[in-house]
Give the backbone structure.
Amino acid sequence: MNIIPVKVKTLPNYKDLPLPSYGTDEAACVDLYAAVDEPIVLNHLDRKIIPTGLSMALPKGYQFRIRSRSGNPIKNGFIIANGSGTVDSDYRGEIGVGIINLNKEPITIEHGMKIAQAAIEPVYHIQWEEVDALDETARGAGGFGSTGQKVA
């Protein structure tokens, strides 16, 4: 297991929460908690950025990738509004998690609620190489669904 040191600053709204931690020794992600002063109610399809009360200094060449916790969409009916979020290594503000409620009923986000999970990941920058043609493949330019819908 590789360990990357990350400097973290807790903000006043973090209060009594523990630092993000791994649920098991082999978990890929840490849990992120809602750091809210009062409960936030989200109605059906409402979207809101939920503060985490954390800011950090990631090492250059890494990102903090935020994603839905695996149980939240099914058990609690909410997901990360943009699918996943990225905290860049040069960002120093409070980390927020965009949440959307997919339930027909309202949900309440309370202080300390596990709202997302995140992992540190390396970043690779693209060096574009413009060419006149691309190599041929069996799929070619076949688009969405071009490889079929089920096992043959």
